[in-house]
Amino acid sequence: MTDLIQLASQPAVWAALATLVVMEVVLGIDNLIFISILTNKLPAEQQTRARRIGIGLALILRLGLLGTVAFIVHLTEPVFSVLGQSFSWRDLILIGGGLFLLWKATKEIHHTVDPEPAAEGVTGGTIGFGAAIGQILLLDLVFSIDSIITAVGMTEHVPVMMVAVVVAVVVMLVAAEPLSAFIARNPTVVMLALGFLIMIGMTLIAEGFGAHVPKGYIYTAMAFSAGVEGLNMLARRRRRTNRDGAPVPGGPARRA
């Protein structure tokens, strides 16, 4: 308790906490998009429970990994080399997670673009509850290891990391329902989110092979794409309003 009081009295610790919270929330966007897309494939009565379980597992994994910080740090040490390129366990985990994201996003794009299975009555785009939780758990593990290793590089105080993780997961829990509902209401957003997952998967693979990709570039591209899609949604809404009989901007009002 004395150590915690001493930490709380240091301005540098509060600055590190604020930075970590922002970083964890930003890194959690990737995880949240995947959870939202995956749980939307479940029956309506199971979706909320699956999101809460998925985000809860993310919290448990990250807090558990923080309890083994000394072991997690060693995951960055090289274990073997191929053609002069060294690979650590973290690299292998990132490559595996990236490949899984590429496979999953490509499969979901196929189900979205090709309507034949649905027309034939085959539920090709749906998954079981257990399969959804298993896939969420797999990506939770990948994103958790990456975020914890990043956090270790920013501060040495485990309590600060734990507070940042808890705050970030609470934000994810609050944002999960609105994000999932928004994606479900806007089919074009699903395709955009799947494109994000492909980009994130490629980034994980690149980092696994030792190529550092600044996260700022990735999230700037995502924000720009989301902004363009937002303008498209606004334009579609205005066209629908005009077709339903609302006055056209700059033109005469229609008579009833």
Q: Can you walk through the features of this model?
A:
- By secondary structure, this protein is mainly α.
- Helix content is about 75%, strand content about 5%.
- It has helices at about 1-10, 10-40, 45-65, 70-75, 90-115, 115-120, 130-150, 160-185, 185-210, 215-245; strands spanning about 80, 85-90.
- It has a two-stranded antiparallel sheet.
- Helix 2 (about 10-40) runs antiparallel to helix 3 (about 45-65).
- The model is unreliable at about 120-125 (pLDDT under 50).
- Keywords: Membrane, Transmembrane, Transmembrane helix.
- This is TerC family protein.
- Belongs to the TerC family.
> What general form does the structure show?
globular
In spatial order, strands of the major sheet run 1-2
Beta-strand fraction estimate: under 5%
Structural class: mainly alpha
Name the poorly predicted regions: 118-125
